[in-house]
Specification:
Largest sheet: 5 strands, antiparallel
Number of strands: 7
Number of helices: 6
Shape: elongated
């Protein structure tokens, strides 16, 4: 994990790759919780029996948006800015889901710090180039530009 004392220290990392994150196992319970939270209960996500029988993957899969929803947590695991008082999701650009995520897969983040803009109130808007990898797979689960606002 990278540790920065201040936003000024963090800004010096612009253009660089962040450390690779930890692997996270995607369980059926996580998928079901996401389905309940989003009301997206399509059978490919929640019906294990039907998925085993009818899906070409022979298992349920995580929602694509579940991968996106994990970006904040996955970034939190790879760097910290000690002086931060608050961080907010700002948005996403160019989101793609090139590969489904079967239940019990493991995911981790590869990210690069691609842009930083100053904001009012001692803040910055940060753009990350994010790739969420699936253990043992060539194609990633998700590729996105993630934007957040960070405040000291």
């Amino acid at each position: 994990m990278l540790v920065f004392e201040t936003i000024a220290d963090f800004k010096k990392y612009l253009g660089k790759d962040l450390p690779t994150g930890n692997w996270y196992k995607i369980t059926q319970e996580m998928i079901a919780n996401f389905a309940n939270a989003t009301l997206d209960k399509q059978w490919i996500h929640v019906d294990e029996v039907r998925a085993k029988k009818e899906s070409p993957l022979k298992s349920t899969i995580a929602h694509g948006f579940m991968s996106v929803a994990m970006i904040s947590k996955l970034l939190e695991d790879i760097f910290i800015i000690k002086s931060l008082k608050m961080g907010l999701n700002y948005g996403l650009n160019k989101v793609r889901f090139p590969n489904p995520v079967p239940v019990n897969s493991q995911l981790r983040m590869h990210a690069k710090l691609t842009a930083i803009e100053d904001l009012a109130n001692n803040g910055i808007k940060v753009t990350f180039s994010c790739t969420i990898k699936i253990k043992g797979q060539e194609k990633p689960a998700c590729v996105a530009e993630f934007l957040c606002a960070l405040f000291e």
